[in-house]
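Protein in question quoted for reference:
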Amino acid sequence: MCGMISQISPKWQGRFNRFLALTAFSSAMLVGTAGINSATAQTVMPVSADAIHTAGHAGPTPAWIAFCAQMPNECAYDMSEPATIVLDPATWKAIVEINERVNDTIIPVTDQDHWGVADRWDYPDDGLGDCEDIQLLKRRLLTEAGLPHRALRMTVVIDELGAGHAVLMARTDRGDFILDNKRKAVLPWQETGYRYVKREGSDNAAWVWLGNLSAPIMTATK
């Protein structure tokens, strides 16, 4: 799913220390957004981005189906939640902080090296994970901080290498923004350079097709 990502050598080096750091970070996020502060976070509210349009139904990946069978609550949807996030300075700060901190905390490693399988969606609770694991953790922390789960959608794209990749789409009243483990910055979807294949739907458990829509601008890693 994640294409070419870095591996660690030896494979488990630093695992325990990373796990402790992750646990401390997760606990800190439970206090909400009020205490979030980062010197390197994007502190300026973004200008409005476009909302990406859907183009019909799509099937989820087999690994997503297996993940939902193990953790059905993580794949549930609540129609009483808002479908978009009302973006204000505190909420934007929470989004960019969590994106950066998780990227800095989790060691990227392929599912094959980690679990011995080609594709597995899971939480990186041991401090190791690939793209979808990292985005799932970001969503868990954002929902713990009070953001609506329904507005945080797992999304499959084709990256700059032509490989499958998973990102987290934050659907907001200012448009759709992408949390990614390949860059620190949270970007409007159209500034990522990715081709957008499909994402979780906002109105039911089905996934929706994004039509292989290409983002017109390729932004370097920030």
About this structure: Residues 2 and 165 are 4 Å apart (CA to CA). The two ends are 22 Å apart (CA to CA).
